[in-house]
Amino acid sequence: MTKTGLAKAGRIAPLIRAGLIAGIVVAGLIFPLVALAGVGAKNGADALASMPEGLTEVPSAQTTYVYANDGKTLLTTFYEEHRKPTKIADMSPFIIQAIVASEDTRFYEHNGVDAKGVARAFVANQQAGTVSQGASTLTMQYVRMALRDGAKTPKQALEATEQTTARKLREMRLAIELEKRLSKQDILERYLNSAYFGHRAYGIFAAAEVFFSKKPADLSLTEAALLAGLVKAPSAYDPATNDRTAATNRRNYVIEQMHKMNAITGAEAAAAKRSKIKLKLTAPPNDCVSVPKKHNDWGFFCDYLRNWWIEQPAFGKTSQERMANLRRGGYKVVTTLDPKIQKSALKHVLDKEKRKSVYAHGEVVVEPGTGRIKAMAVNRKYSLDQENNGEHSDRRKRDDFKGNYPNTVNPLLGGGDMAGYQAGSTFKIFTMLAALDEGMPLSTAFNSPQRYVSKYITAPGPATCGVHWCPKNSSASMTGRQTMWSGFGKSVNTYFVQLEQKVGAEKAVRMAERLGLKWRTEVDRTLAGPDHADGWGAFTLGVSDATPIEMANVFATLGAEGKYCEPIPVRMINTRDGASLTYQGKKVAGPRCRQALRPAVARAATDAARCVTGYGAAKGSCGGWETSPMVHATMKRPVAGKSGTTDSNRSAWFCGFTPQLAAAAFVADPDNPKNTVGTSRGTISKFTVAQTLKDALKGQPKAKFTPPPDELIHGSWNRSGSSNRSGW
């Protein structure tokens, strides 16, 4: 703006010509038309003209809302400043009238800077000898908020709010410019969406919710006047205190101002001032510890979502930036959590292991073909409060630590920094898939003794024969000639060690990696490395750690006929303007899938996995019995899977799947992995998975598995090592 342009800036020029506000500094309040005493109107005009032309209007921080898969059930919110923008048409007329009456009665008359208000404040402050009145208009206040919110450094934030001539001059210049671009209604809307009302409520939507548990459109006269009065000093006029005198006096002042502006009648004002303050306080949830109390179990899913979020490059370059984006971005996140399946999973988990048990019993349900996580249930409360937790199950740690039961925020189901649990014989799936992938058919047979001397070299121990690893079966009834069908259905250790030797242990390890497993302990990373993987014979028996999410997703890949999809907790992410969030041309919330296995291989593995559940193979003999017949007996529909226990029964697993859903359940002591769960808990994961899947699939068609092709039934494998790898 040029010097001549100053004369066009509303009513400022007449005041300068009159010399009413030249060089005024009163008790730290520096009025913004001239810089110092003795500086004339021309210099004041020069200073104003030198201010920046533009106002960088950075969107204010907004609350991110997180919903269940129906898009309506609120799980929680994330925010630094609780704010949800609201159109002025969706606000009560009372709040619009009240904020003008409270903060700027001449709002509709000035052009951003109220010259009469500046003069009036000058006279009052001169007489008082201190700052008794300010002169900022609503427009100037909004400019200050915008500059504060748009600050990229602490220095810029300070400059936006400090009491200096430069700041006041800048506010005036930008206020005048802003009123050329925006209507009064637009400015009011932005102001009411930016103002702070106390109790972490930013903007009128949050204020109406926090103080009255209602929407802005429903605010009454007295409620609107109370909220408008808070803007001046939210702490001083806080109505949520025992002494509401200050809040009442401030509210009544606003009501009286509304009457003077003819917004309400004298009778309305009198009645409103007589009424007592009635609040209905709400504390909006923030983060995962604030999920609804009656659905505390949602916290573990929420925690997985948060950990997933901070790993996504779509939300920023660093984990800190991504977390800030979650708390400030104003997203609408529709997750994959199905409340009905979650409720069923939790019921069946708690039926078998109560929350006060040292043993964690949990389950994850995943949708094949999408990777969407439908449920995450565990017999714990998601809470930071460990005051009344039980003793640590490791006696050596009891003096220093409480046990993580019943309350914990540890990611017991996956997605955090916990390694997981040894998954036992569920890992036989990786050896079988590696063999099938190399063309070895389901009919591949080995004589499987009770104890087998393997080629693998191992340290001395109970499972060694000299320098060799010598695993054994859990039952003598497993002895004899086995195929993949019977070996998998009965979980014959000595069969799978021979199969692993045939295909190569490293191929089994790489198959696990192909299907999403990660090595989270130093031991696992070392043994899975290129120098050791081919000698890791015990891998097939599940000595490595895995999480329930990983294992549920492995079997979901089989349910989707070899289509691997990353486990994902979101179904939709919309930005604050309602657009679907994309990154590198793809929807961030979309399934992330690839064909990890040939369909023929997945179908063949599924046929063997049918033997486990009692459903029976389509193309081969299961050998007369199986480890988990209760699964099909419970579900009464096509189902496949694999059970798994570790040495000394330190954990017990079951992973089950249909073409529509897959689930993995476990029981173990996460505080003390060496603590045995006992034989009595060996079957509870099987029942939990079966009952949950039965409930979840009720009313849905009984989808059937596709039988494997002939090449992987009897195959074209020859002992020279060549194979037929067709079947894509």
From TrEMBL:
Renumbered residue ranges of the record's region Disordered: 381-404, 698-728
Keyword match Transmembrane: yes
UniProt-listed GO biological process terms: cell wall organization; peptidoglycan biosynthetic process; proteolysis; regulation of cell shape
Keywords assigned by UniProt, alphabetized: Carboxypeptidase, Cell shape, Cell wall biogenesis/degradation, Glycosyltransferase, Hydrolase, Membrane, Multifunctional enzyme, Peptidoglycan synthesis, Protease, Transferase, Transmembrane, Transmembrane helix
TM annotation in the entry: 20-41
Keyword Signal attached: no
GO molecular function terms noted in the UniProt entry: penicillin binding; peptidoglycan glycosyltransferase activity; serine-type D-Ala-D-Ala carboxypeptidase activity
Annotated ranges, domain Glycosyl transferase family: 74-259
Pfam families: Transgly (PF00912), Transpeptidase (PF00905)
Domain Penicillin-binding protein transpeptidase: 364-684
The organism's place on the tree of life at top rank: Bacteria
Catalytic activity reported: [GlcNAc-(1->4)-Mur2Ac(oyl-L-Ala-gamma-D-Glu-L-Lys-D-Ala-D-Ala)](n)-di-trans,octa-cis-undecaprenyl diphosphate + beta-D-GlcNAc-(1->4)-Mur2Ac(oyl-L-Ala-gamma-D-Glu-L-Lys-D-Ala-D-Ala)-di-trans,octa-cis-undecaprenyl diphosphate = [GlcNAc-(1->4)-Mur2Ac(oyl-L-Ala-gamma-D-Glu-L-Lys-D-Ala-D-Ala)](n+1)-di-trans,octa-cis-undecaprenyl diphosphate + di-trans,octa-cis-undecaprenyl diphosphate + H(+); Preferential cleavage: (Ac)2-L-Lys-D-Ala-|-D-Ala. Also transpeptidation of peptidyl-alanyl moieties that are N-acyl substituents of D-alanine
Low complexity bias locations: 715-728
Cellular component per GO, a single term: outer membrane-bounded periplasmic space
Comp. bias (Basic and acidic residues): 389-402
Stated family: In the C-terminal section; belongs to the transpeptidase family.
Protein name per its UniProtKB record: Penicillin-binding protein
The organism's taxonomic lineage, starting at the top: Bacteria, Bacillati, Actinomycetota, Actinomycetes, Micromonosporales
